[in-house]
Amino acid sequence: MGRNVNSKYWDEELETLPREELEKRQLADLQEIVQFAYDHAPYYKRSFDEAGVKPSDIKQLSDLQKFPFINKKTQRDTQGVGSFLGELAAVPEEDVVFISTSSGSTGVPTMSPFTKKDFDEFQDTESRWFWQIGMRPNDRYVHALNFSLYVGGPDVIGAQNLGALCIWGGTLPSERLLFILKTYQPTVIWTSPSYAWQLGEKALKSGYDPKKDFSIKKIIVAGELGGSIDATRKAIEDIWGAEVFDFYGLSDIFGACAAQCEYHDGLHIAENHILVETVDIHTGEILPPGETGELVFTTLRKHARPLIRFRTGDIGRIDRTPCKCGRTHGRIHILGRKDDMFIVSAVNVFPSDIEAVIREQHGITGEYLIRIFEKDFTSKYAVEIEKNSDNPKDDAAVADEVSAALKARIGVKPASVIVHPDGGLNTRSEHKSKRIIDERKLDYSI
């Protein structure tokens, strides 16, 4: 393939561009895509006209702030309107070669179309992330992600384009996946963080030692926050004896838009494809780099359905300071979903904070369930956990320890901690695990 396998970069020029040059390229792509969206997508023509803005208003990157936001509701409201692809699409259906859909976990599933150029650039970015974590042509890779309409499914092509031997696993039963790991001895696997941990636990209970019986050296996780939570990442690494790397993707854009490097200090985002803004979740006011707010993405090169100022619903920050790895593209740090954040006694609580505490505690399995409920017209939360079968402490003592740890980390303790025996919680899943039950009936929109 003509690429130096000893180089740490997939595309050194692109990945190490000086910020000034990177932003110059972003501006050129932004001006082109905004004009293209205005000329070809009915929604953007109408929206820009109503807002009194036009593509030619963009003289510098900050001028994007003049343009209106879109969000998931925009996608749902325009999907199928006027055409199969809807009013946000900027190309005819005959130019589209692939579509994925969102899970629909927060509403009606939304469709994400790709032209061939969109798709090829999408997979080149995936190759870049795989290379970034150290995958090389001599690796064997198991893609243990859903292939059914899921935008992460095709990412296996990025590994193939890199030259790795690829096993299209999909969402196999655990027993079958363990058989593959034992028989084919792959070196890299991609799945969700909760399933990576659960698969390791199941391997141990099945008589395997993941560190000795398998050859996994790198584990990619995505779809949940665990990969960026130090305690969760360490728990997975301790079982497998492998290094865990977090990836971040959006069905609205493409499979993995950002990925950790070897320093695990945030996830490098493909700034040649995505312009990142951070805004106040209430006012939409632009926040300086480094401050925490809702991440807003603008696609710079995706033509099938451009996204101009798309409010992702993800709460985080972007860090554009130099990374030790030498890459100049900014790193995003995700705290959680705006939809998942809840407020207790004036404290913002993210499920990721609770997970970090649970995964650090000794004598419990690491499985958990969060229940949010109302009492005296205010929000409360309770946590359910599992105690290890060999833990000699009584349930009350375990509950007190976890409650105190949550109070110390988060600032507000749970209304209760309920302790189950090992396996007593129905949270284990071979996909994303459901860990939050919101029983509130009042409107607690943030």
Describe this structure in words.
With 446 residues, the chain is of the alpha/beta class. The chain folds into two domains: 1-335, 3-Layer(aba) Sandwich (Rossmann fold), CATH 3.40.50; 342-438, GMP Synthetase, Chain A, domain 3, CATH 3.30.300. 30% of the residues lie in helices and 23% in strands. It has twelve helices and 19 strands. The protein has helices spanning 12-15, 19-40, 42-51, 72-78, 116-132, 156-162, 174-184, 193-205, 210-213, 230-240, 351-360, 395-410, and strands at residues 96-101, 111-115, 140-143, 165-167, 188-191, 218-221, 243-248, 258-259, 267-269, 274-279, 293-299, 310-319, 331-337, 342-344, 347-349, 364-375, 378-387, 416-421, 436-438. The protein has an eleven-stranded mixed sheet. It has a four-stranded mixed sheet with strand order 18-17-16-19. A hairpin with a 2-residue loop joins strand 14 and strand 15. Helix 5 crosses helix 6, helix 8 runs parallel beside helix 10 and helix 10 (230-240) crosses helix 11. The longest helix has 22 residues, at 19-40. It starts with 11 loop residues before the first helix and ends in an 8-residue tail after the last strand.
